[in-house]
Amino acid sequence: MPQRSLIIVGLGESLWDLLPGGKQLGGAPTNFAYMCNLLGDRGTVASRIGQDALGEEIAQTLEQLGVNPRYLQRDPQHPTGSVEVHVQSDGQPSYTIREHVAWDFLEWTPQWEELAAEADVVCFGTLAQRSAVSQATIGQFVRRATGALRVFDVNLRAPFYSEAVVRHSLEQADVLKLNDLELPVMAHLLGIPFQGERQCAQALLTAHGLKLVCVTRGARGSLLLNASQVSEHPGFRVNVADTVGAGDAFTACLAHHIAR
Q1: Average pLDDT value over all residues in the chain
Q2: How far is Cα 9 from Cα 254, in angstroms, rounded to an integer?
Q3: Lower CB density within 10 Å: C or N end of the chain?
């Protein structure tokens, strides 16, 4: 008997990445939802765009990609978000993120309450919680998603995170996903001695009652651990063009398979 399509929600920012070669649809939750959709799930973006040309282009692009734009809110006062992406010689990106944009003003609505109740997985991070308005809405959504696997993909983007936001997000999460550069930053924020990746991941798992911690390691693969098992994978050798969205694709695959 075929499995039903899971409703997997990327909650937070939807924006344009302004890359050297032109603009691309982005935002970690948007990338995540698109990849889940490719995997056969009902990947859904819950975000907010401006009532402007860039916002309309996001809605149209998602629809063309087969992702339902129904849960995109329209903001009449604030513009659609954008990020200038600078790709370094090693393929690693740096970001200049526009502030006071539509996704800084996420609203709790009956439509989103309905989506939260139906969700099988919800994935959220720190960036969209940089404003008090969106932080409150994301918290409400995650609390109402009582039947969902809750994935906290931290996506630290300085200076748009804080110890308070990280702690609050960990309290609401089942799964923590972060990369090897973010791990020591998280340890410092939370007052955890950093004595190696495995020890730090274990400390986070135990201290916050998580079901799983996943650390991506770039060219060194990945580390996953839960209360009883540790799994390390060396990764696959590839020629790197740029790494924008790679972590979001990893999170989508992780969520897709855990939920099954």
Answers
A1: 94
A2: 14
A3: N
